[in-house]
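Consider this record:
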Amino acid sequence: MLIAGFPAGAFQTNCYVVAPAAGEECVIVDPGQDATEGVEELLREHRLKPVAVLLTHGHLDHVWSVAPVCGARDVPAWIHPDDRHLLSDPAAGWSETSASLFGGLTLSEPDDVRELSDGAVLPLAGLELVVDHTPGHTRGSVSFRLPDDEIMFSGDLLFAGSIGRTDLPGGDYPTILRSLAAKCLPLPDDTVVLPGHGPQTTIGRERATNAYLKEAAPHAGPTRGI
């Protein structure tokens, strides 16, 4: 398994490329602000051919470069339908004050956009990625898992020592607690968590030390929409 990544742009959003090994097909996860050059460097370094871009949610700091990355390699982007509108209307995911900071920035959808659903298994690049719908940070937030390797790309659901914010449009604190309870707490302690921001961690470490996961524990049960 080859997983390489880098923090992109002013938001320091983690962008990953994932492949069975060097020299093979890969997927790209969350190409954020100014991520295009970093993605191309990783593809050259590891001799990778991308077949898809996977988006954990639609916030600008995770999708900023999705159209140019997809366009350069003629690959589809995958996103949950509840966040698809953010690809072309990024301001809708931010507060009115925050949106004004983008100075009229406009984005567009890639030519090929495909929609994710909870529990779907994506057979891409020789990998089988399980999609978990994890609303709470946004309505269409998802995480991606490689169950055989006990790896989770958590987006902005779970960080080392924290969780994603819930004060932006589409966010909801009780909902993210239910997502954590339903999609994170059942995982093995050895599951490696590769988050949207900050360092990697494990489910076991977060179960033992993350106050939000402790708060989520009584909310066990099926995840419900906002």
Summary: Residues 138 and 170 are 5 Å apart (CA to CA). The first helix runs from residue 36 to 46. Confidence is low (pLDDT under 50) at residues 221-226.
